[in-house]
Recover the amino acids of this structure.
């Protein structure tokens, strides 16, 4: 595994008061894979990826991205380094058009073909017919897709998707899975997901978090067979 | 912002054309009023760039207006510089003071930002009074006539005064349109809507807001300088809190985050005060009632409300 890790954490820790949200997590993300992060509610998944993308300050431990120590790097510089995060609670710019939402993500560094690039991404996620609509007039499922489009528009090396299929219809989930498959291996994907069908279908690797700690890491098959995981999470 | 690249320019260009025609037909009294309105509209546009588009609710813009006013007035009276140079100095003074203020004040946000900018402006105002021997203190000073000539035109006469005011207004409104239509304008709006989210798209909130505040300071500074040069008086009252509140009210009245809103706000407020003060000494009460009506029935301002109803070309 050594040498192909795009992102590595060592002893990563974050407490909120007495709550050990993330406790000494060692984690390696392999380049070009889809890696799912699962665990019961309150397991610390969102806090963990918040530490990775810089939304939550690190208390202890280190994060290396592509060999560079980014533990204390401000969030916007991590984005520029290639880490994109899509929000669990849809966080689009509601007052702006669909086009402007994606163009915002696509326009840095400045480019001449911004209009074309933006339309291409909207076509990828299937929102091209809503391009001039104001974002808050989209249905919930389409807002989720817009959020993902903004992540893709950043042309990230690591795309962190926080519960992307929540609120999507079955047809939209099928489209979403095809979308994620199409971005690897150029983009590495870290996926927080509750829908086990999606996880088992997409993931090359799965890490199970519980009470802020890593319970197990492995392929979908080994995770499904893991007794500790079954008792803690899968309801064995 | 995609497609139809000429459309956003139509409304400002039409307004500039209308104002140019008015320069030839207005009676003297309104001619002078309009020149004031145009200069104050430049100040209001500076405020609009910070507050309307980027969401920086500053209560200290009198400091930037005053910096331009005093830089120009003092340079003319003490340094004997020409009007053109004085305008340039006013521009730089506004931008420079905004930079220094922003570096410190932008460490805060929201209510704290309002208070910190207010404190900076009050400190500036009190400094003007403290150094009264140099600044003229409470009474201020009259700008020397030698500094009120530009390119051979006597700026104390109606035509040239209106011409310079309209020239500055034209540059300011076209500049404002260009800024907000550029990719940077999109980032400004993103900062206003949700600066934490904008940061997760790779934009540095502090740097973006600092650039915006400096642009806003340049507008305010050159407006202050022009006000002193065109109307001949420099006084500390222009750096007092009233001149921090006024641009906020102008922008809210006309429509914050719209290209024409600042001009419309200044125009309406100016004539509201002008007309009501000829009927009653309680003219500020009329203004207060007007603002209450605005807040209750058109919280987005006049143009903001119309735009919501009839489309974005009004922006």
């Amino acid at each position: 595994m050594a040498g192909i890790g795009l992102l590595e954490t060592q002893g990563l820790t974050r407490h909120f008061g007495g709550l050990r949200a993330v406790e000494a997590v060692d984690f390696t993300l392999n380049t070009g894979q889809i890696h799912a992060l699962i665990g019961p509610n309150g397991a610390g998944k969102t806090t963990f990826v918040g530490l990775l993308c810089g939304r939550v300050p690190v208390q202890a431990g280190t994060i290396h991205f592509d060999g560079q120590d980014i533990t204390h790097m401000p969030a916007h510089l991590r984005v520029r380094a290639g880490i994109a995060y899509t929000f669990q609670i849809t966080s689009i710019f509601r007052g702006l058009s669909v086009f402007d939402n994606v163009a915002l993500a696509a326009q840095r560094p400045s480019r001449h073909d911004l209009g074309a690039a933006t339309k291409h991404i909207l076509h990828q996620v299937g929102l091209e017919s809503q391009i001039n609509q104001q974002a808050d007039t989209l249905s919930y499922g389409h807002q989720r897709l817009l959020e993902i489009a903004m992540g893709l528009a950043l042309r990230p090396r690591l795309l962190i998707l926080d519960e992307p299929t929540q609120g999507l219809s079955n047809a939209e989930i099928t489209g979403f899975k095809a979308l994620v498959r199409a971005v690897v291996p150029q983009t590495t994907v870290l996926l927080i997901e509750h829908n086990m069908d999606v996880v088992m279908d997409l993931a090359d690797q799965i890490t199970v978090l519980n009470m802020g700690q890593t319970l197990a890491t492995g392929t979908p098959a080994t995770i499904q067979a893991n007794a500790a995981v079954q008792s803690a999470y899968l309801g064995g | 912002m995609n497609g139809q690249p000429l459309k956003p320019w139509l409304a400002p260009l039409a307004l500039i054309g209308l104002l140019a025609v008015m320069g030839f037909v207005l009676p003297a009294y309104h001619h002078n009023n309009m020149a004031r309105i145009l200069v104050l509209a430049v100040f209001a546009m500076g405020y609009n760039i910070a507050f309307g588009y980027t969401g920086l609710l500053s209560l200290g813009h009198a400091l930037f207006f005053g910096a331009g006013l005093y830089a120009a007035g003092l340079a003319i009276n003490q340094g004997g510089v020409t009007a053109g140079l004085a305008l340039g100095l006013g521009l730089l003074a506004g931008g420079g003071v905004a930079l220094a203020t922003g570096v410190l004040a932008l460490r805060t946000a929201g209510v704290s930002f309002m208070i910190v900018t207010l404190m900076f402006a009050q400190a500036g105002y009190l400094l003007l009074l403290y150094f009264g021997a140099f600044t003229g203190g409470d009474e201020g000073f009259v700008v020397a006539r030698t500094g009120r000539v530009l390119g051979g035109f006597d700026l104390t006469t109606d035509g040239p005064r209106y011409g310079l005011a309209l020239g500055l207004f034209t540059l300011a409104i076209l500049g404002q349109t260009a800024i907000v239509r550029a990719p940077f304008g999109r980032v400004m709006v993103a900062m206003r809507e949700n600066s934490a989210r904008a940061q997760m798209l790779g934009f540095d909130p502090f740097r973006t807001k600092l650039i915006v505040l400096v642009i806003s300071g340049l507008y305010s500074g050159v407006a202050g300088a022009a006000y002193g040069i065109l109307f001949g008086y420099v006084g500390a009252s222009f750096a007092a809190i009233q001149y921090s509140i006024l641009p906020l009210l102008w922008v809210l009245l006309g429509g914050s985050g719209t290209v024409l809103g600042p001009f419309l706000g200044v125009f309406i407020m100016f004539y509201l005060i002008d007309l009501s003060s000829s009927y009653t000494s309680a003219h500020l009460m009329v203004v207060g009632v007007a603002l209450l009506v605005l807040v209750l029935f058109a919280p987005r301002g006049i143009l903001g409300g119309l735009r919501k109803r009839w489309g974005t070309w009004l922006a």
Observations:
- Chain A has a mean pLDDT of 91.
- Residues 140-153 of chain A form the longest helix (14 residues).
- Chain A touches chain B through 32 residues (CB under 8 Å).
- Strands of chain A lie at 5-16, 19-30, 34-38, 60-65, 68-69, 83-86, 158-162, 188-192, 205-210, 213-218.
